[in-house]
Amino acid sequence: MRLCFLVEEQYRHDNMPNEVIHQLTAWGHQVDVVRPGGSLLRMTDLMDNGAHDAWVLKTVSGGPGLTLLEAAAASGLTTVNDARSIRGVRDKALAAAIGRSRGLPLPTTYAASRPELLREIPAAQYPLVVKPADGSSGRAVHLLSSPERLEAMLPTLGGEGLLIAQPYVPNSGTDIKVYGVGGELFATERRSPLHPDPSVRERQVPLSAEVAAIAEQVGAAYGLDLYGLDILLGPDGPVVVDVNDFPSFRQVPDAAARVARAILGLARAAGSSATPSPEHLPYKLPLFRPAPAVAGEGSTV
C-alpha cells in the first residue's frame, strides 16, 4: 500500500509516528511523509493524483495538517482518523457539546472568547479548571481556587483564544489514560498536570469494565479509530476530561506494530467498500516543495 503521513514539526523526531512509519516501510509499504509546517503546498493540485491508499495525520491543534487532511477527505480519499472526527475533538468546547449530547460522563463545560467573561460563572462552581479550547499535552491548564484567583490570572489567560472552564473533579492526583487502537483498549495511570507529583510514574494498569465501556462509547461517539481519552475517577464515578486523536500510545505493548496494523486495516476496509474507480495515477506534477528530509524519518518523498 502507499500511505501519506502528515507530520507536524513538533512530532518530526518523536517515536510516534516515526516508529509506525519505519514499521510500515519494513513491511514493504511505501510511506510518503509531508511536513505541512515545512513545505510550500500547491493546494489546488494536492489531491488530483489520488496516489495514496490513505492519509494519516499526526499534528498539533491549530496546525496546518488538519487542513490538508480535510482536503483529502473532501476529495473522497481515505483518512485516518476521519477528518470531521478529528475536528470534533480538537475543539474542546465542541467536543464537550458532542460528548454530553451522546451521553458521555463529561463535566459541565463553559466556553468564553475572552477571559473576563468567566467572571459570570457562579462562585459555587469553583474550583475551576481553565484551559485553551485548542490546547494539547497539558499546555496552559490552570486550577483556579476562587473568583479572586481568576482575577489574578486574567492577564495570563488573555492570549489563549477561546477558553473552556470546568468545575474541578476531586481525584487522587492521577489520570487514567485509555488508548484505543485496532479495536483494543489499553489503560495507563499517570500523574495529573494539576497535581505534578514527581513520584508518580506512568504505568500500565488494569482496565475496569466500567472504564472500558466508557472508552468504547467515546470511540463511537466521536467516530475515532485511533484515539486516547483521559479519565478521572471522581467521587461520583469516572469522568472524561479530554479526548484526543492519534495520541502517543505510551506504555501500549508493541505500539508501533499495533498502530501500523490498525492503519493498514482501516485503509483496506475503506478501499474494499469504496466505489470502483480507475487505477491510481502516478504523480505528474510536484505537489509540494518539501523541506530537507530528516535522516531515519522513513520518508520516500
In terms of topology, how is this protein built?
Elements: E1 2-7, H1 15-26, E2 30-34, E3 40-41, E4 54-58, H2 65-74, E5 79-80, H3 83-90, H4 92-101, E6 110-112, E7 128-132, E8 142-144, H5 147-157, E9 163-167, E10 174-181, E11 184-191, E12 203-204, H6 209-222, E13 227-234, E14 237-245, H7 255-273, E15 288-289
Parallel strand pairs: 1-2, 1-4, 4-5
Antiparallel strand pairs: 3-15, 6-9, 7-8, 7-9, 10-11, 10-13, 11-12, 13-14
Please give a structural write-up.
It contains seven helices and 15 strands. The protein has 301 residues and is an alpha+beta fold. Strands 12-11-10-13-14 form a five-stranded antiparallel β-sheet. A four-stranded parallel β-sheet has the order 2-1-4-5, with helices on both faces. A hairpin with a 2-residue loop joins strand 13 and strand 14. Helix 1 crosses helix 7 and helix 2 packs antiparallel against helix 3. The radius of gyration is 20 Å and the shape is globular. The two termini are 15 Å apart. The C terminus is likely disordered.
